[in-house]
Specification:
Layout lengths: L27 E6 L7 E9 L3 E7 L16 E8 L2 E3 L2 E2 L6 E6 L5 E9 L17 E4 L6 E3 L9 E7 L5 E4 L19 E3 L3 E2 H5 L3 E4 L1 E7 L7 E7 L9 H18 L7 E7 L6 E4 L3 E6 L7 H6 L3 H7 L7 E3 L16 H4 L1 H13 L5 H16 L9 H6 L14 H4 L3 H20 L6 H8 L11 E3 L1 H11 L4 H10 L8 H5 L2 E6 L4 H10 L2 E3 L5 E3 L5 E4 L4 H4 L7 E5 L2 E2 L2 H10 L7 E7 L2 E7 L7 E6 L6 H5 L9
Parallel strand pairs: 1-11, 17-18, 18-20, 21-22
Antiparallel strand pairs: 1-2, 2-8, 3-7, 3-10, 4-5, 4-8, 6-7, 9-15, 11-13, 11-14, 12-15, 16-17, 19-20, 23-31, 24-25, 25-26, 27-28, 27-29, 29-30
The protein binds zinc ion.
């Protein structure tokens, strides 16, 4: 199919345009050899149709879904360009490190281009983070492909891809396999190769390939058309043993999205799940698949499963909200033009809200677990002093500089990071409960989504851009209200506190007790961190290393800082449970909690003056008020049991 991204304005290399030969009838031939993936090197060979004269080859820079210019050009190596067996010299552009210039000799109609991708990144980051192990690999095609500059739209460049897999490995991808294969085939040909139909460059980069030795494919909600597959590659066969309840939850997810979005915008959908401790952990959305990388034991460890409950619902939701409906500033149509992240509080914030709601509606997690997640999220944002200098809008606008995705970086409570995700949950819960309140429960955000995400009904993958005004118009068509004012107030607020009106309108309130909720406890168990955030204002690793210090908290007043290491608590060697005991024991008296702290080779005794005991967030039902949050979490289909 052809993806209909709209044409864009600036084309950096239009002047260097030489050939438009990469048409559907003369695609770039791309073969990626993955047999060295276990030792972290991918080999690519391209045959690129060209015309004589100057030619610029590009390497993708702005990666869709990552919202930043992080194409991994530093890991491209072994670049050789030849024509009729003769090696051609190339030069890199002086300014754009992603542009390679070469002159095509007279009489030459195609170039042979070889390159290697060094898959040596650490187990952090996004799609170009660690992606291989001895037993599996996730191929993001942008890591290896070079393509001629000068096209209006990257949907106009065509590529005919193929791979060679290590012996005995299976694979899955949303790419259409060349006849006689079937789309759900997971076995390569007898020579280990798999050949795919010619697709646009956009579809290629949008369709990663998962391969591995320990591999399972599950057909989800088989009664639903189009088809949905859960494909998992893991580091051991025991990691593939999903419980019937887990599989049933993902099947429900397929059904619930149909009821919620009233449309689908793909030919078939693949959840490509890598379960490995050797790879980066994140999810990256695509139109017809998602790249979901989770810890190895996710499907066999209840804490890991709970912490990942919203991952697949989130990335799947992006097929509608993010890929199909996309903020105008992110719909650039190519990989060269800078993206604008100002509407990421919709792209990511609304998706974060829906991913968690869908996890509960699909019974991937319980309603109580959803509320525990929401309590943790709300309390984190309510104790976020950075909100007094930086508004929510700025966290979205600055997304392309924020390489600090996720929580846990030093002083993040003052810097703020990608708050448009978690605070997006609160904003959109506020929208949902406000619609329900204004219409006495007759309408909800579901009505907005059916119209906004379901625009045009079922379609093949394509991009329909939107603006802030489109969001406001869509909400007003559900129920007239000052939605522009509602949203702008939350986007520009410098209030020290998070917007908790959605929780209150939902019939709940945020409270603190001395017992961690199940979600907070799972986070502490998995990470080994002790969260004393809402008491003394500290996150501490199992070795006593301080992750962060809450500005304005008792620990801040005691001059503790991130990176310092707590050696002893009240005279005894540090452990998380000793720290909790000390906080508990200081309740109601005047004795400071005494710490011995190491900081860059210097030791110091520090006293923390705090006497209010342990504090962890929970949502508590406010009796006598409408239980709208409970209504929001109810399944829309009869299938979720
Ligand atoms: Zn997302």
């Amino acid at each position: 199919m052809r993806f209909s991204l709209r044409p864009t304005l600036g084309l950096l290399f239009a002047a260097a345009l030489s050939a438009n030969a990469q048409t559907a009838s003369h695609p770039i031939q791309l073969m990626v050899d993955l047999t060295d993936a276990p030792r972290k090197m991918l080999h690519a060979h391209m045959t690129i149709p060209v015309s004589p004269g100057p030619l610029t080859l590009l390497y993708a820079k702005w990666i869709p879904g990552e919202h930043m210019p992080d194409g991994p050009i530093d890991d491209l190596a072994g670049l050789f360009i030849t024509a009729n067996g003769q090696q051609l010299s190339w030069t890199r552009d002086d300014v754009n490190m992603y542009a390679i210039r070469v002159t095509v000799p007279e009489g030459v109609t195609q170039l042979d281009v070889k390159d290697d991708f060094l898959a040596t990144a650490a187990a952090s980051g996004f799609s170009s983070g660690a992606s291989t192990s001895a037993n599996l690999a996730l191929l993001s095609w942008n890591e290896v492909v070079l393509y001629p500059a000068g096209h209006q739209d990257d949907a106009d460049i065509h590529v005919r891809p193929a791979v060679i897999l290590p012996q005995g490995w299976q694979y899955a991808t949303a790419l259409p396999r060349e006849a006689p294969g079937k789309e759900s085939d997971t076995e390569p040909g007898s020579d280990g190769s798999v050949h795919f139909d010619s697709v646009s460059l956009e579809q290629l980069i949008d369709s990663p390939l998962l391969t591995g030795k320990y591999f399972a494919q599950f057909n989800l909600a088989p009664e639903v058309t189009p088809k949905h597959y859960l494909d998992i590659a893991a580091d051991g066969p025991e990691d593939l043993k999903l419980s019937p309840a887990t599989l049933s939850g993902y099947g429900n997810l397929v059904r619930e999205t149909g009821a919620l979005y009233q449309s689908r915008h793909y030919e078939s959908y693949h959840f490509l799940v890598t379960a490995s401790d050797q790879v980066a952990h994140f999810g990256l959305e695509h139109h017809q698949s998602s790249d979901d990388r989770v810890p190895e034991k996710t499907f066999v460890d209840e804490n890991l499963l709970l912490l990942s409950a919203d991952l697949l619902p989130h990335e799947f939701t992006h097929s509608w909200n993010g890929k199909y409906r996309r903020p105008a500033g992110l719909a650039t149509g190519n990989y060269e033009d800078p993206m604008k992240g100002n509407l990421l509080w919709v792209y990511e914030g609304l998706t974060d809200y829906l991913g968690n709601v869908l996890a509960a509606r699909s019974h991937i997690e319980t309603e109580a677990q959803y509320r525990d997640y929401l309590a943790q999220d709300a309390a984190t944002l309510d104790y976020r002093p950075g909100r007094t200098w930086r508004d929510l809008q700025d966290t979205a606008t600055a997304a392309q500089t924020l390489y600090l995705y996720g929580d846990g970086s030093p002083w993040d409570n003052w810097r703020r990071n990608t708050d448009y995700y978690g605070e997006g949950d609160l904003v959109w819960l506020g929208v949902d409960t406000t619609i329900r309140k204004l219409t006495n429960g007759k309408k909800s955000l579901n009505d907005f989504l059916a119209a906004f995400e379901g625009l045009g009904g079922n379609t093949p993958p394509k991009v329909v851009p939107y603006t802030f005004e489109d969001i406001v118009t869509g909400l007003n068509s559900v129920v007239p209200y000052d939605w522009a004012g509602f949203l702008r107030e939350r986007l520009t607020s410098k209030s020290p506190h998070a917007p908790l009106d959605g929780i209150e309108n939902g019939g709940y309130m945020l409270v603190y007790t001395d017992v961690p909720n199940d979600y907070t406890q799972a986070m502490m168990t998995v990470s080994g961190m002790t969260q004393a955030w809402w008491s003394i204002g500290l996150d501490v690793a199992s070795d006593g290393r301080i992750g962060d210090v809450l500005i304005g908290s008792p620990s801040d007043k005691a001059k503790l800082g991130p990176g310092m290491q707590i050696i002893a608590v009240n005279g005894r060697q540090y452990s998380g449970s000793l720290l909790n005991d000390a906080i508990r024991d200081a309740t109601g008296n005047t004795n400071p909690i005494s710490l011995i702290v190491a900081n860059t080779g210097t030791y110091k005794v520090i006293g923390i003056d705090y006497h209010d005991g342990l504090r962890y967030p929970h949502l508590e039902r406010v009796e006598g008020t409408p239980d709208r949050l409970d209504d929001i979490l109810k399944p829309m289909t009869g299938s979720a049991k």
